[in-house]
């Protein structure tokens, strides 16, 4: 009898432990995403507005940041769990001891998404890539902007050794200096600032949306500890993002005010600027990752080129 009672107690204890474990796994998790106000992040903002995170059974807090540096520091500190950044950021996180993995592209599945352009100042007379040789091009040093400036010009036959750069990290200051044309004769800018510069008299010299190879991508990345603990939550975040992107593609006018606010559309473009179409989420290709890693290694930004498997985590997209 004592043995029977003992056995029953053990069985009940096991059921209790399993029940608690199951309850713990089903506990609703709130994940924080760090976001800049750029058009790449618009699906996240639409998902919040339309209640799509709740629809997909996930609680998400969108934490705004004014600079990529502040956002990245927050991810390193564990104050946020994910962000939309670029492949350079993913590698630098890893080098700095914060393991992250890319789970999807943001914008950049096609060359038309996430446009960047190298422009010359009004009245400079610079209209062709060949004329940029030796001319200081305003960029943000050792960032995705620097990478794109070199790679875009390489695509049109200009070697990095033929280029000069001047560092102006603040994009608004870079734009103003370009349009003034006194100290800056050329600069690389993303949309919508590139479009604003063109409408203000600057000349587009190289447009990455018209190049043969697709060079500019943003990526959605998460801390590895988050991916291990909450894989289903990450999958649901991506599902909500994709549903929101579909709504943006179908009815951008419905979200005009949100787009102007969250993508920081300059006032002169509020009634004319067209946001890009958002492709279905996909993983970056090996060629995309290898090109960025090799550039970073050549610049001394990382000691070794990380492999595709070290940067990208498959299995979080619906397909």
TrEMBL record:
SsuA/THI5-like domain segment(s): 42-254
GO CC annotations on file: periplasmic space
Protein location: Periplasm
Keyword list, A-Z: Signal
Predominant subcellular localization, coarse grouping: periplasm
InterPro entries in the cross-refs: SsuA/THI5 (IPR015168)
Family assignment from sequence similarity: Belongs to the bacterial solute-binding protein SsuA/TauA family.
PANTHER family: ALIPHATIC SULFONATES-BINDING PROTEIN-RELATED, TAURINE-BINDING PERIPLASMIC PROTEIN
Protein name, UniProt field: Metal ABC transporter substrate-binding protein
Source species of the chain: Thermanaerosceptrum fracticalcis
């Amino acid at each position: 009898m004592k043995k029977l009672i003992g056995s029953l107690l053990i069985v009940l204890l096991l059921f209790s432990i399993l029940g608690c474990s199951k309850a713990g796994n089903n506990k609703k998790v709130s994940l924080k995403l760090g976001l800049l106000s750029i058009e790449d992040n618009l699906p996240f903002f639409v998902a919040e507005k339309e209640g799509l995170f709740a629809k997909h059974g996930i609680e998400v807090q969108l934490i705004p940041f004014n600079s990529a540096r502040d956002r990245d520091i927050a991810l390193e500190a564990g104050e946020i769990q994910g962000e939309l950044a670029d492949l350079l950021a993913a590698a630098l996180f890893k080098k700095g001891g914060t393991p992250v993995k890319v789970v999807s592209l943001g914008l950049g599945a096609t060359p038309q998404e996430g446009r960047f352009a190298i422009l010359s100042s009004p009245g400079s007379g610079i209209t062709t890539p060949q004329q940029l040789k030796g001319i200081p091009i305003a960029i943000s040093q050792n960032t995705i902007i620097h990478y794109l400036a070199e790679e875009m010009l390489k695509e049109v036959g200009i070697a990095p050794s033929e280029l000069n750069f001047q560092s102006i990290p603040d994009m608004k200051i870079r734009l103003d200096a370009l349009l003034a044309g006194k100290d800056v004769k050329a600069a690389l800018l993303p949309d919508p600032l590139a479009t604003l510069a063109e409408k203000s008299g600057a000349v587009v010299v190289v447009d990455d949306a018209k190049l043969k190879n697709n060079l500019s991508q943003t990526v959605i990345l998460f801390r590895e500890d988050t991916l291990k603990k909450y894989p289903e939550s990450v999958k649901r975040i991506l599902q909500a993002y994709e549903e929101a992107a579909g709504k943006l593609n179908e009815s951008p006018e419905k979200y005009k005010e949100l787009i102007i606010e969250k993508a920081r559309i300059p006032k002169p473009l509020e009634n004319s600027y067209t946001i890009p179409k958002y492709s279905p989420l996909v993983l970056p290709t090996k060629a995309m990752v290898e090109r960025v890693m090799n550039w970073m290694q050549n610049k001394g930004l990382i000691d070794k080129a990380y492999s595709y498997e070290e940067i990208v985590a498959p299995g979080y997209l619906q397909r």
